[in-house]
Request: fold
Amino acid sequence: MAAQTPQQRNRYVDFLRAVSILIVIVGHWLMTTVYYYDSSLTTEHLFQIQPWTQWLTWIFQVMPIFFIVGGFSNAVSIESARRRGIGYGAWLSLRLNRLAIPLLALMLAWAAIAAIMYALDVSPGVIQLASRASLIPTWFLAIYIMVVILAPAMHRVWRRLGFLSFWLLVAIAMLMDLVFFGADLHWPSWSSYFWVWLAIHNLGFAWQQGRLPSPSRLVIYAGLALVVLWLLVFYGPYPLAMVGSPDQNLSNTTPPKITLLALAVFQFGLLMAVERPMRRALTNLRLWTATVLVNSMIMTIYLWHLTLMIVFIGLLYRTGGTGLDFEPGTAIWWITRPLWIAILVILLVPLALLLSPLERLARRADAPALSPLRQVCGAMMLCLGIALLALFGFGGGTLPVQDAASVALIVVGAAVGGLLPGFR
Reply:
């Protein structure tokens, strides 16, 4: 696959996609603070144990890069579909299948796991904690699916307005933050899941169309964005951590704040400034082959890396807490982190090889496309069910039947959207 890659392909896009996901995975594994003490497991946020670690999120929060890469890839596929006369319904069908099928497999697996845990009389609190931790990766795909649905419309807006479309989305996000902090009214800011991530996604459009300035100007813009981010955090009301927060009531990501926009421009400027040398480096077949390999199973390793870790922790607990008896934040705990990550990598590889074929179960290009309305309705139901389970976990809902309703939304949404084989 690597050797047959067309020369005109921008390999840096694939490289950034692979690296950003790997950084997220390592970050999640690194921040795990499970501690076996007195025959029980305890967990505490690393940001509370060692507040300085909040700075690490300025490195490990790379989801903006994934959305930018998504914008580039969506623009390429939209323009290709337009040239070939492929309509919105057929285009959307291909994009949704590649995203939703691996996601659907994880959600159904966790429904079965939760049911088994209930049957074994596992504490509801443990079930909720384990499922919420394992389903953390799904929030991203839920909102990204909605961004994909809107991508063709946003691409048309971009072609007409250019960077003005980016700044309009930024302005709306700023207004939501003003309402959040100034009026202490929080519910409107949940719409920033669209304004913030769509704005970041638009940067990928700019990249794909070659609308970026020179490398030196990109570095200047990155520096200005860093200054803005610094001012927002240290002279404004925003927390230091770019993902998660010691304060349960205030976060830069739930809902998204304009700090993520500043972080995105900072990261984007630096990464684009070195695009040319990186594209030359990626002509090396070994480096490019590694990139292709990671991308061939990227959704699998992203979606399952926390479930794998939770299961592994459960097995260690059953063996008397082996390896979990190092107090988080101590010197010995930090020294053992590379070994912890290496073991999880070794366990993740066979799981990824087993499940990654699900990523290639896309609809045939010549298959009849479902109506766009049906696909959008199905995707919205799917994303709502995922969002509820990611937010509350199994057993943590406010309604008695919320777990069953959430799973039903996922299954019915997948069926309506044509994501299940018998409903295509």
Q: What stands out?
A: The mean pLDDT is 89. The radius of gyration is 22 Å. The longest strand covers residues 34-37. The longest helix spans residues 88-119.
